[in-house]
Amino acid sequence: MFERFTNGARAVVTGAVDQAGKTGSDSVTEEHMLLALLDQQGNRAAFAVAALGLTDRRASVEAALAEARRRGGLTKADTDALADIGIDVTEIVTRIEDAHGEGALAADRKGRRGRSGRPAFARSAKNILEKSLRVAVGRGDRFIGEEHILLAFTVTPGVVADVLAEHGATHEAVTRALYGEGAGGAEGQAKAG
């Protein structure tokens, strides 16, 4: 699949490995991929990210991702569902951190390193790459670009999609930023895929 990636998409993948290395993580997560994508310049996804104001709010995006890590990776939907049955996630996190130290739930889940000694890709990151292929195919594109990775983030339920949505980067907003007003059709099929 990597041979179908554009230079921009490859830069996101290698940038994610670098992000994981900088943090000492044993695995490359979708969070690392998002941060690598936010580092991109001069391509379609970088334009969309800037148009949506994410470039100027990178610190806010990073803080929201850190808060989700602190909650053990629970999404907003997860915490809302638990609240509906009377479970206060904030209270639980506080108790765990009181007993085990700040960030106890955010500890890096030790993954396996690849043969090269570099961090291996976590299942969530692999899912994003697979979804980016589906998005590209759904749009009728022959290659997988960084814009397909960005769209894959918005259609894959999880913390990254939540954080992007909180910052105004929903699937619809990203699609408009990438392809203009009235962009319809194939990406709706990719979203369902």
From TrEMBL:
Q: Which InterPro entries match?
A: Clp_N_dom_sf, Clp_R_N
Q: Name one GO molecular function term.
A: peptidase activity
Read off the Pfam families from this record: Clp_N
Q: Which residues form the Clp R domain?
A: 2-185
- Which terms are listed as keywords in the entry? Hydrolase, Protease, Repeat
Recorded hits in SUPFAM superfamilies, A to Z, give:
Double Clp-N motif (SSF81923)
- Tell me the GO BP annotations in alphabetical order: proteolysis
- Name this polypeptide is given: Clp protease N-terminal domain-containing protein
Claim: Protease is one of the keywords in the record: yes
Q: What's the domain of life for this entry?
A: Bacteria
